[in-house]
Amino acid sequence: MLERKFTQCLERFLTEEHHKILLVNGARQIGKSYIIRHVGRKMFRHFVEINLKEDKEGMRVFADVHTTGDLYMRLSNYNRKPLGDNSDTLVFLDEIQSYPHLMTLLKFLNQESRYRFIASGSQLGVALSQTPSVPLGSVTIEQMYPLDFEEFLWATGVGKEWIESIRERFLRQEALDESTHNLILQRFQHYLLVGGLPEAINKYLSDRNISRVRQTHRDIHNLYRIDASQYDDDHRLKIRKIYDLIPSNLENKKKRIVYKDIEGKTGKTFSDYADEFEYLTNSGVALEVSAISNPRFPLVESEQKRLVKLYLNDVGLLTSLLYGLNVNAVLQDIRSINLGTVYESVIAQELLAHGFKLHYYDNKKTGEVDFLIDDYDHLTVLPIEVKSGKDYTQHSALSKFLGTPDYGIDCAIVFSNERLVFKKKGTTYLPIYYCMFLQSECREEPVILPALEEI
Questions:
Q1: Residue 243 neighbours by CB under 8 Å, 6+ apart
Q2: Can you tell me whether residue 235 is helix, strand or coil?
Q3: Are strands 139-143 and 116-121 parallel, antiparallel or unpaired?
Q4: Are the CB atoms for 47 and 38 separated by under 8 Å?
Q5: How high is the pLDDT of residue 381?
Q6: What is the pLDDT at residue 342?
């Protein structure tokens, strides 16, 4: 079994939060059902799993359930075994977006508290938008992603104590020794090829056969395209077109979506494809990065939807589409191969998995900076550049960005393949694998507000 950080999130919620239902959102094939099943069976005497997508395509037992009584009755017939109560019974409603009307029912199931419930889906954002009465206050939504690089290291036998020692080096802004650097960089390159989808990682671990790994990538990529078929013809074709354009767009200089390329029509804007973008991002198969031209903390106040970049949700899918079975494109320093797209994709994947909202800087005079993130500790903005070549200290747009007095931003990070860690003119240069240690508001201890003064 692949160890996942999300396991702790599930266990904590089921142990501490008894007055809400957890909704786990995320793309298909990232391991949601497996983790929930594993934790549910470990923590509860009675565990019932219902795949509502399969039910909708088959017997439709739960298709016309509209009251809690209906659900309990169908549930008892479905399980055919006596259930306990709230203290020892967990009911898992998988692919709940298949029946949006059940989303409304969660509020009443939570109030009655007859059993514990947990639900998951790959398009919960879409399902909630179609729900007549969103169960606010009754549910907590958590996002799940493919395995990040640290989880990949666990899977490939790198011990947690060793990773902690590497984390200490990162926190002290120190470089690793040459041999450790080479080993971790090699693992990172393998991660670029394999990605974080559990099935692909398991194939990789079994025999290192890249052909089997790539077949898994092709199967999952096709599955994501097929999933769009639930929409009408007009939406389905545009969703697939946008999704298919992602790799080629990332190979362009600007990397952002060119709206006229979607249907071959000029004058199109983001608003013309808002539903399609919502589907791709809410289903978890694409990562959206919004433009910022005037960076201010918090970044969400300044984002522009008209200039959007999309990345695939898994770097393994991207390298599969770009390079197929040729692993040397990633493993060897081939001058004709520009890995900038791949490196940006993996950083986007890492940042999102670690709690950051994705933005990039776009300014006609200054240029573009790959990523901007909110620095909550210092209440400012932190720019990030990703370099795959030897000229990683050359970054005119980032230098102009830091040299703009109005922004008041004097710190930045550049990630590259190089081992050395150093700081120059406000920019800290780090090896690419240190990206696994960037965390958004990650605190071990609770933050307690100071006591109120008496009036």
A1: 224, 225, 228, 280, 285, 286
A2: helix
A3: unpaired
A4: no
A5: 95
A6: 95
DSSP state of 264: T
pTM here is: 0.93
pLDDT of residue 451: 65
Torsion of CA 347, 352, 357, 359, to 10 degrees: 20
Distances (CA, A) of 266 to 208, 246, 258, 272, 374: 46, 19, 10, 12, 35
What residues in the chain have per-residue pLDDT under 50? 443
How many residues belong to the chain? 455
| Helix, strand, coil in percent for the chain, rounding step 5 | 45, 20, 35
Residue 269's identity, in one-letter code, is T
Residues 166, 437: Cα–Cα separation, whole Å: 9
Query: Nearest 10 degrees: CA dihedral of 225, 228, 230, 234?
Result: -120
Q: Which residues contact 254 (CB under 8 A, 6 or more apart)?
A: 368
CA distance 189 to 229: 34
Give burial (CB, 10 Å; 0-12/13-18/19+) of 380. middle
pLDDT value at position 81?
83
Q: Which residue has the tokens 């056969």?
A: 209
Ramachandran angles phi, psi of 80, nearest 5°: 65, 15
Structure confidence at residue 308 (pLDDT): 86
End-to-end CA distance of the chain: 57
pLDDT at residue 134 in the model: 66
Q: Which of 388, 453, 390, 377 is nearest to 415 (CA)?
A: 388
Contact predicate 289/348, CB 8 Å? yes
Q: Tokens at residue 85, please?
A: 């109560």
The distance of Cα 395 from the centroid of its chain, to the nearest Å, equals 27
Is 375 exposed, middle or buried (CB count within 10 Å of its CB: 0-12, 13-18, 19+)? middle
Residues forming a β-bridge with 56: none
What pLDDT, on the 0 to 100 scale, is given for residue 449?
65
Among 382, 368, 361, CA closest to 426: 382
- The whole-number pLDDT of residue 442 equals 52
Q: Which long-range CB contacts under 8 A does 355-360 form with residues at least 24 apart?
A: 355/439, 355/440, 355/441, 355/442, 356/438, 356/440, 357/299, 357/300, 358/287, 358/288, 358/289, 358/290, 359/289, 359/290, 359/291, 359/292, 359/299, 359/303, 360/289, 360/290, 360/291, 360/292, 360/309
Burial class (CB in 10 A: 0-12, 13-18, 19+), 132: exposed
- CA dist., res. 48 & res. 74, Å (int): 12
